[in-house]
């Protein structure tokens, strides 16, 4: 599913959080969404996911608006903020609860937990998880429906170098499987590690889009 953002605008009072923004995100690549804090990244990602209503413009995923997807969890996975779970719940039970609510087979919880490398911590309680483990659990939750598109908002925030290396390998493997991966960050150094392509915004507007090496090399 290609993501197409077309002339998206979001106005809050007198703030243009997102201002006539257009870009596309290609399947099979990890696309970084880079901009300083307050640039409009979260607002854009939330408009993609139908969590914020655009003032103008539209966004589609695989040619459809998120609101029109018949089975959104199987199309699009989202990792939106420092992921949380009930403190006293184990990692595996957290995923099983989501599977049950979403009508997904219970076996998806085990498969997905293993996929993010958390099988050894399956029976440990969430409150004992490190930040990196919490992020992996959030990613696992987003992947339960085996979506073709994964959208992550600042997933590397606060991770140590080992956590970022893991994130890079994981996201690249998803892209290699032909999935669409859109990952935001306010750090250029993180984008250089994580992304193949980059979309740069500032003050709600597109600054540049292209392969990360070319775009960064020309800055
Ligand atoms: P980023 O994710 O790049 O840090 P955001 O999308 O969170 O940027 O914010 C963009 C701008 O919009 C900021 O000025 C922010 O304060 C403002 N903003 C975001 N959400 C809201 C909201 N719900 N109400 C009012 N202002 C908002
Ligand atoms: P909308 O329903 O227009 O899509 P949101 O769901 O993004 O807006 O935001 C709902 C409310 O949350 C906003 O009206 C605002 O009061 C508050 N809010 C959320 N984030 C921010 C922010 N960064 N700055 C100011 N207010 C915010």
UniProtKB/TrEMBL annotation:
ABC transporter domain location: 3-219
Keywords: ATP-binding, Nucleotide-binding, Transport
One of the record's GO molecular function terms: ATP binding
Annotated family: Belongs to the ABC transporter superfamily.
Protein name according to UniProt: ABC transporter ATP-binding protein
Organism: Salinispora arenicola
Portion of the parent chain present: 12 to 230 of 311
